[in-house]
Model the fold of this input.
Amino acid sequence: MNIPANKEMGLGMSRIAIINGKLADPAADSLSPGTVLIEDDRIIATGQIDIPSDAQQVDAQGLVVAPGLIDLGVFATDKPAFHFGGITRAALMPDQRAPLDEVGLIREATRAGKPDFWIHPIAAATRGLKGAEMAEMGLMQAAGAKAVGTGRQWIADSGVMLRVLSYASGLGLTLIAHAEDGGLTAKAVATSGETATRLGLPHAPACTEAMAIARDIMLVRETGASIHFRLVTTKAGFDLIRAAKTEGLKVTCGISPAYLFLNDQAATDFRTFARLSPPLRSENDRQASLAAVADGTVDVITSSHDPRGPEDKRLPFADASPGMAGAETLLALSLNLVREGQLTINRLMTLLSANPARILGINAGSFAVGSAADLIFVDPDTPWIVDSAKMAASAGNTPFDKMPVQGRARRVMKGGAFL
Amino acid sequence: MPDIFIPDALPQSSGPELTGRALFPHRHLLSIADLKPWEIRFLLDEAEHWAQANKGQARKHDGRLAGMTQINAFFENSTRTLLSFEIAGKRLGADVVNMHAGQSSVKKGETLIDTAMTLNAMAADVIVIRHASSGAVALIADKVDCPVLNAGDGWHQHPTQALLDALTIRRRKGGFEGLIVAICGDVLHSRVARSNMLCLAALGAQVRAVAPPTLLPPEVEMLGAIPFTRMDEGLDGADVVMMLRLQNERMDGAFIPSPREYHALYGLTPERLAIAKPDALVMHPGPMNRGVEITSTVADHPDRSAITEQVAMGVAVRMACLDVLTRGARGVEGWA
Done:
């Protein structure tokens, strides 16, 4: 492939050729040696290409070159943690101190990370995330919202949910939904089972997830809307999603590494770092989650990054806030799936970058011509130990503390510039 | 189907030959789940000593905790447990101070950890804590330098209640082997039930959890109890019937239709008690809802009811626990 010299394209363009990398192209089947050519903030060619003479060459030294991670569903703008984790963009959940339900808040959120990190806010679908009145989805879309969401809440009123899905679909926005039936979940902080019984914690049966998904799938069938269940964590939930996909409905789902590598016993001794929403599930559901990643049911792996300090976490279990700091461990933990043979690294990058970009409707997360020049150089095998006391995140609330992991992002390029 | 916990599979010996600190190598008393069967028996033996001493003489003062400060930090309302710990501490000569949530800075927004640090800075020698959240007492215990006694945390544990119930049963029945104990009522929300199931199963009793399905925790078998949802079946052949208090806030239709229906289906009446063994013992941790979970005839039965005896054993058990947990600090030989 011939690349025209810069002067034919016009002046002032800067070009970078990344050479000696193993390309983890989400659209390919396996790693392949090749070059990525970048002009300004866009990818203009990849693969076996002639390197233009005026391009600045950057040697990837045999590392894996992959699209920067796009984290679909984080709770904080925590740049140091995202950069450590090789994350170059994140969709911000509307559950902020002031819920993201109006234009000004959306506009502010989109500016929060720039230039070296991009936040794509998820607009609250209903005012105050209360599940009653629709928020100004169209105006928020114009201000930069890339999706609408229910937050960590369940829209209990099915009539409201029907209209939210229908209206969002008219705008071409995906609804990012939380899959727990609020009535069944109520004040539960754990999944019903031996651990919750031993610890005496308020609990709800795991079917709360499938109940929520079942209703929402029926409303998607009715409206033709597109829905993304941010976290699906149970066998029954995955079964419903598998069937909906077979039927051709616009249904996608995600998961976080915590649900793939921990079960509800992680809360033993009232460890509040393992207090998550939805709560950790049984070992059977954990195994079903791994299977759903392997068989393609899961579209997205997200960190659900939610850094929480001692004021939120050093409390009795049920009084603590849910959530974990996950940005720094997202890549390393996900690479376990590649090492264990559940996925190829290319498929993993589809889950970590390409699919989130597709759901958000942004031109990023791939090596296609014109895609944003957000790249990471990954050493997939380098070992390190998660240490909650020394994290880049604004808080160290990880349930994986002291766990040995492998894989680090060595360099991060955002919009054509290395950090 | 999970494996059912079989009490007979536990070591039935009195355990290894131990002395001093090895008899009870715990800094705190937080959960029955932390204790070996022989450690429970050791505490019961110690409590038996105090039960006799409390009964035998008019002047009950024993000065062994003289000069030590005991703080009773109650973040949840209590009358009898607080009083019982206060009397236990005073009989042992400790300076006992009570902190009620209502009067404390907790209401002003101070965090639990800050409250714990404050109590610790006052150099208490033993702290007794009750809190409405499961796990809260362990959280505080982790932050203080002195022994902590759990006087009830959420739905989780109430270890001294289980010990006093076990002592009451042992005194009346002579032992636990083969004994059928039916724990009846709101098992789901009950820390008393959780502690008792673990304790009695560890001691060799056959434990039943009897409750409406809405008040029975999932996988209760794993705590050593066989679940029953019909009162009559659960009571059949029982040696001990332990009733639980039905909290007022559970009576509103969410878990049971009404107190009247609950009484009809799960209340302990003389007729229902007749299904249990003829000499079955009736227990209740108090305070009772007379006419809801238990009728007065049963509660006040002179031979069958052990309810006031439970209260007496409560003081003895708490004296034993306060004594044992402070032996290290007091420099008792073998306990340093």
About this structure: The first helix of chain A runs from residue 6 to 9. Chain A touches chain B through 22 residues (CB under 8 Å).
